[in-house]
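Researcher: Let's do a round of design. I'm pasting the C-alpha cells now; please hold your answer until I've finished.
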C-alpha cells in the first residue's frame, strides 16, 4: 500500500516508516522542515511538506495514499488541552478525504482512554466519551468519522521507550535532574504501562494490515511498572536521592507534570495480541532506563 504517515520523522513515526517499508509498503511522510524532507528522501520515502496546523497539506497527503497512519502530535504539555483539540481537527481533515472509500485511517490515542475502573487495567473494548483526559478528543473525532462510514482504527499508546526517550518519563528525568531528587507520589504504587518503540512500530503496521474498522489496539508490552521503581532507577542513574512526596506537593515539585505523576495507568494488550498476532520482544522500560546515558545533553 501507499501510506501517508504523519509524524514520519518523529520518535515513533520514524520507526513506523522503517517498519512499513520493511513490510513492502510505500511511504509518503509529512514533514515541515528541509532537514526532515532530506531524512525522508534518504530513507526512500516520498515527502509531503506541511504541518499539523496546515490542514490543506494533510488533505493532500491523504488524497495521494491508500491508507493513512497518524502519529504526529504537538507534545507541548503546557498546552495539552489545546493540542488535543488540534489533533481532533487534524483527524477530521484526514477523514474528509477518505470518506466514500475503503481506505483506512489509523489514529493515535493513549491507553488511559480505555480505563474501565480505577485500579483496573485499561481494555481495548472500553471507551468512555466523558473521560476527563483531554486526549479523549482524538477518539471522539475518530468515532464521528467511523459513524460516517470511514474505516477508523485506534492505536493507544503507553510510555513508549528506548534508551534515549521514554515518553512522559523523559520529562520526569529532566525534572529530577533540576530538582536534584527523584520523587514519587505517596507510596509510589501507581503504575504506568510501557512498550519499546520498535514493538510499538510493529503494532501500527499490523493494525494496518490485519486490523478492522472500529477496533482499538493497545501497544502495551508491560501492563504496569510502578512509579516508585521508575524513580529508583532514575535516581540511581542521575545520582540523586529518591523520596516520596505528598499528592498536595506534586504541582510544586513537578509543575505541569504533577497532573500525571500520581496517575495509575495500567493497561492490558491481551486482545491486541490475539487480534493482530503481535508479540513484543524489545527491552523493558527499566532495562532502557538502566542503559541510559544520564549526562546532561546526552
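Researcher: That's everything. Go ahead.
Model: Designed sequence:
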Amino acid at each position: 500500500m501507499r501510506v501517508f504517515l504523519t509524524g514520519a520523522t518523529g520518535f515513533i513515526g520514524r520507526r513506523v516508516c522503517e517498519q512499513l517499508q520493511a513490510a513492502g509498503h510505500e511511504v509518503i511522510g509529512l514533514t515541515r522542515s528541509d532537514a526532515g524532507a532530506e531524512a525522508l528522501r534518504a530513507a526512500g520515502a516520498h515527502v509531503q511538506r506541511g504541518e499539523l496546523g496546515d490542514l490543506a497539506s494533510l488533505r493532500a497527503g491523504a488524497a495521494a495514499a491508500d491508507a493513512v497512519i497518524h502519529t504526529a502530535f504537538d507534545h507541548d504539555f503546557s498546552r495539552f488541552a489545546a493540542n488535543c483539540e488540534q489533533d481532533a481537527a487534524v483527524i477530521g481533515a484526514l477523514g474528509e478525504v477518505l470518506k466514500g472509500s475503503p481506505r483506512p485511517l489509523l489514529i493515535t490515542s493513549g491507553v488511559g482512554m480505555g480505563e474501565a475502573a480505577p485500579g483496573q487495567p485499561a481494555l481495548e473494548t472500553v471507551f468512555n466519551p466523558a473521560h476527563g483526559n483531554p486526549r479523549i478528543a482524538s477518539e471522539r473525532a475518530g468515532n464521528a468519522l467511523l459513524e460516517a462510514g470511514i474505516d477508523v482504527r485506534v492505536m493507544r499508546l503507553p510510555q513508549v521507550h528506548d534508551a534515549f526517550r521514554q515518553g512522559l518519563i523523559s520529562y520526569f528525568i529532566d525534572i529530577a535532574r533540576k530538582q536534584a531528587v527523584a520523587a514519587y507520589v505517596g507510596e509510589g504504587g501507581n503504575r504506568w504501562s510501557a512498550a519499546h518503540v520498535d514493538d510499538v512500530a510493529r503494532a501500527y503496521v499490523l493494525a494496518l494490515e490485519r486490523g478492522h474498522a472500529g477496533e482499538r489496539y493497545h501497544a502495551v508490552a508491560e501492563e504496569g511498572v510502578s512509579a516508585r521503581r521508575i524513580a529508583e532507577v532514575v535516581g540511581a542513574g542521575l545520582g540523586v536521592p529518591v523520596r516520596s512526596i505528598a499528592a498536595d506537593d506534586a504541582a510544586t515539585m513537578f509543575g505541569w507534570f504533577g497532573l500525571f505523576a500520581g496517575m495509575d495507568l495500567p493497561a492490558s494488550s491481551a486482545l491486541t495480541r490475539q487480534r493482530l498476532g503481535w508479540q513484543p520482544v524489545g527491552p523493558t522500560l527499566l532495562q532502557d532506563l538502566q542503559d541510559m546515558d544520564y549526562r546532561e545533553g546526552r
